[in-house]
Amino acid sequence: SRIIELSAEVEALNKTKDELETKLEIYETGTNDETLEALQSENDILRKFGCLTNVMGEGIVITLNYDNPNDVAYSANLIQSLINELKASSAQAISINGERIISMSEVRAVSNYLAINGKHYYAPYTISVIGNATSLESAMEVGIYSQFNSFFSNRGGSISYIYENNITIPAFDEELMDSKVNMLFE
């Protein structure tokens, strides 16, 4: 079984090698138009994985309503747990009130608002998540949904979620990305 596993890994690596050699050949011997087209294609892929493009797809939209805005601070751990559960399931992209969440995003509850990527957002919160809806719904039902319901039953407010076919999540702010990357290398 280990030989079969390693053979499959070697096959995948050979396929990647062939793709990279084809790209290299285009860069070295292709016309300017071919090279430019290959670079633009590569740039599009990198921008998508770097969260620098809008993305569309199916998933769920979660709504958090607070009767008392000051309760946002008391639910900070629940909000972070929710984001972690979504990331651990099939979430491909997440936004809160239109602010794209990336691996370097900070989401902190401060008094009566959420600080996300250095910006302030006030309740209600709409959390849009693109990914496999069944997996995302399972992540919600694992326990975080009941924890929010328990929290809101004691303080007032609600959590709900619905399946959506066409969710659009905006690109991450490129200027903010530049500042975060610069901080990493300082």
Would you give an account of this structure?
With 186 residues, the chain is α+β, with helices and mostly antiparallel strands. A hairpin with a 2-residue loop joins strand 4 and strand 5. 51% of the residues lie in helices and 26% in strands. It is built from 5 helices and 8 strands; from the N terminus they run H-H-E-H-E-E-E-E-E-E-H-E-H. Helix 3 packs antiparallel against helix 4 (133-155). The mean pLDDT is 86. It has helices at 2-29, 32-49, 76-88, 133-155, 174-185; strands at 55-66, 93-96, 99-101, 107-110, 113-116, 119-121, 125-130, 157-169. The longest helix is centred in the first third of the chain and has 28 residues, at 2-29. The radius of gyration is 21 Å and the shape is elongated. The strands form 2 sheets. Strands 3-2-7-1-8 form a 5-stranded antiparallel sheet, with helices on one face. The chain has a 3-stranded antiparallel sheet with strand order 4-5-6. The termini are far apart.
